[in-house]
Amino acid sequence: MRNPESSPLMEGLAQALSRAERSLTGRLAEALEQQGCSVEQWRILVLLADGDGHPMSEIAEFALVPAPSLTRLVDRMATDGLVHRTVDARDRRRVLVHLTRQGRALHRSATALVEQQGAALLADGEQADLRRLQELLEAFAGRIR
Prior knowledge:
Elements: H1 6-32, H2 39-48, E1 54-55, H3 56-63, H4 67-79, E2 83-87, E3 95-99, H5 101-121, H6 126-144
Antiparallel strand pairs: 1-3, 2-3
Helix pairs in contact: 1-5, 2-3
């Protein structure tokens, strides 16, 4: 039997999460545009900045981009000299994507812009609240998968 109180709660939660995501992503997109970088590209740069090569499936999951769109995006980033691909030495069927020197430079400058946006949004006391919110959202996302 359905709990009648849970439906309005879930509707409100879905609405609030969507509004927050749109607002935050819009603000990031505006800031990143200064570097000629999209939010999706920045997410890819963040993952690849660890220096390890990553397969396309892992990048798609991390960057929240469907596989066909990711292929086009990574192709464009390769053409722009931001990433390069190598064959995985352990599994020759897999291709790994790596940052180039130019990609690392874009990652640094784009991340600095994102951090400036974060600092502008938050007073010092709110950072702990946002970290807790992030933890709660990650736990919630793990339960609803």
